[in-house]
Amino acid sequence: MQPPAGSQVSRVPAQRTPSDQLAPPVPLPAPVRPPRRLRTVLTVVAGVLALLCVGGGVTGYLLYDRATTPDRSAPDVVVVSYLQAVLVARDDNRAKLYTCGGSLPSIDEFRNQMVYRERQLDAVFSINIEDVQVTMTGRSSAVVRAVVRRSATIDGVQQSLADTWRFAVADQEESWRVCTGERVQ
């Protein structure tokens, strides 16, 4: 329809509202991420395994350290351990772990005599350490008496000899050590 002639309405093209007055466009929904449960589960499992490995390593180290550290907690313990290392196991390196500063010549001579007799008699001696007695002579020194019994079967007959030994031991840095040893007549 046309406006009547003479009307004051003119033809004006349709006007648009300025863009700053328009309602903001409706945002499109953000894309939905697929759930990452697998990644979370794998992270938790990896963390637990890492903790178990570290804990197992520490436990293994402590057990190894405890098993390989010689027991030098008391005078009688160190003397018995020393005698077992030098006479039974015949391991000089292990025996040195229990001494003040190296081997004890009197015990080394005793072991050498014992080895000589074993060869001579074609027998193997069984060693027992018996009647261990400790006498404290100071806060960090003691005397330990022990009987070393050698037993063997020779020509079908069970035989044994016993020798009494006296050892001077000292506490060096919270660790007892055998310093001297002599046979008691």
Structure description:
- The protein is α+β, with helices and mostly antiparallel strands and 185 residues long.
- 37% of the residues lie in helices and 28% in strands.
- It has helices spanning 37-68, 75-88, 92-96, 105-121, and strands at 126-138, 141-154, 157-171, 176-184.
- It has a four-stranded antiparallel beta sheet, with helices on one face.
Count every beta strand, where a strand is a DSSP E run of 2 or more residues: 4
Total helix count?
Answer: 4
Secondary-structure content class: alpha+beta
Note the overall shape.
rod-shaped
- In helices, the fraction of residues equals 25-40%
Q: For the largest sheet, list the strands in their spatial order.
A: 1-2-3-4
Order of helices and strands: HHHHEEEE
C-alpha Rg (nearest Å): 45 Å
Major sheet characteristics: 4 strands, antiparallel
**Through-space gap between termini:** 146 Å
Q: Mean pLDDT, rounded to whole units?
A: 86
Q: Strand share of the residues?
A: 25-35%
Poorly predicted tracts of residues: none
